[in-house]
Design a protein that fits this description.
Blueprint (H helix, E strand, L loop, with lengths): L4 H16 L7 H14 L13 H20 L3 H6 L31 H15 L6 H10 L1 H11 L3 H7 L6 H12 L3 H10 L2 H12 L5 H12 L3 H16 L8 E5 L5 H5 L4 E7 L11 E8 L2 E7 L2 H14 L9 H11 L9 H12 L3
């Protein structure tokens, strides 16, 4: 079948419109899947000049999406406008876009809502949060309706954490972090984290034991020794999480995960240099590789506690993942493979895009017989 230029343009326009409703920045695999499905459902569109018959559609669709993003930018689509390079910027400068499986990365504002009207409602929510007895239902409703404005502030302006906490104080609460994570990823934060971890804990611990038999990885052995003295489900989870950076590539978690005495006045010293991480406050001055009794777990961003009163290390890790997503942070370099493992293997968010290192550990766990 000879395909006219007009017909091909109409097909590509329709596909680009449908794809943009999911994401303005599809991955290579997305383009390939769309091109394959198009040819499979309409064999008459098959390209006889390529082996598989869909390569020409794959490349045409990539160019079409690039042109379509220009139209979206002109129309004021927030995600595309934010990603637009400013004049004078370097050609190779990276743009801001969904990188960790976000479904609603920077959504469009609700129809009929002006920026002035949205700012008035934000101030109402900010004032309500400061009351001694706030209206939690009103705050919940406003958090939902102000989601697009909040994401535009966070993704587009990239404010410092103190400014963000002042502007959106209602966000920094365990319940709202969970709700915001669901809005961004459409996945329940705590359920996906705990359920995924429970399915892997025993395999992870066995892999850790095998790694310490050679006498190497002493920090990992210290974690397992602590577990041998007190083997509860809660401590097994903590051991799996705390041992992950020690195993996955010898990562040093000291800049991300720190422990301190709950009754010592050394918070500023304990948080010094922490850009993002967990501060685990324990009972007593002597802490083992696994805390015996956790007094409090706090999420720290830019040497500032943004979330605390968490009584469990596992929940602390889950909340840390939630905060990273909610305020659009990069994974810390010192534990980037550990966080990627938690995202792609434990929580199963974009699991098909795992790095070779994380994919290798996942395969080892799946093959491991308990």
């Amino acid at each position: 079948m000879v395909i006219s230029k007009t017909l091909k343009t109409n097909i590509l326009d329709t596909l680009a419109d449908c794809m943009s409703k999911i994401t303005a920045y599809p991955d290579r695999q997305h383009y390939e899947n769309v091109a394959k499905t198009l040819v499979e459902r309409h064999p008459c569109l098959r390209d006889p000049g390529s082996e598989k018959g869909w390569y020409i559609w794959f490349h045409s669709l990539k160019f079409k999406m690039g042109n379509y993003r220009h139209k979206l930018s002109s129309a004021g689509c927030p995600e595309v406008v934010i990603n637009k390079r400013k004049s004078g910027s370097s050609k190779g400068e990276t743009v801001k876009k969904s990188k960790k499986g976000e479904v609603n990365y920077c959504p469009d504002p609700p129809e009929g809502q002006s920026p002035e009207n949205m700012e008035v409602k934000r101030k109402i929510m900010e004032a309500e949060k400061q009351k001694k007895d706030p209206n939690h239902q009103l705050i919940e409703d406003l958090m939902v309706s102000k989601f697009s404005q909040r994401r535009k502030d966070i993704v587009g302006d990239q404010p410092h954490i103190t400014e963000l906490m002042s502007r959106w104080p209602a966000l920094f609460h365990e319940r709202q972090i969970r709700a915001e994570f669901t809005r961004i990823v459409t996945t329940d934060l705590l359920k996906s984290f705990v359920d995924g971890l429970d399915g892997l804990v025993l395999r992870l611990l066995e892999v850790y034991k095998a790694a310490t038999k050679s006498g190497k990885k002493q920090p990992l052995k210290d974690i397992l020794d602590c577990l041998a003295k007190d083997d509860t489900n809660e401590r097994r989870r903590a051991a799996a999480l705390l041992g992950l950076p020690r195993y996955i590539s010898g990562e040093d978690p000291s800049t991300v995960i720190r422990m301190c005495d709950a009754h010592a006045d050394i918070l500023d010293d304990a948080m010094k240099g922490m850009q993002v991480g967990l501060l685990i406050a324990c009972e007593g001055s002597e802490q083992g590789a696994i805390p015996h009794e956790v007094f409090d777990v706090a999420v720290v961003v830019e040497e500032t506690i943004v979330l605390h009163n968490i009584k469990d290390v596992t929940v602390g890790f889950a909340m840390l993942m939630g905060v990273i997503y909610c305020i659009n942070l990069k994974y810390p370099n010192d534990m980037k493979y550990s966080f990627e493992f938690l995202q792609r293997v434990v929580m199963k968010i974009s699991p098909d895009q795992a790095s070779a290192r994380v994919h290798g550990l996942r395969n080892k766990l799946l093959r491991y017989k308990l």
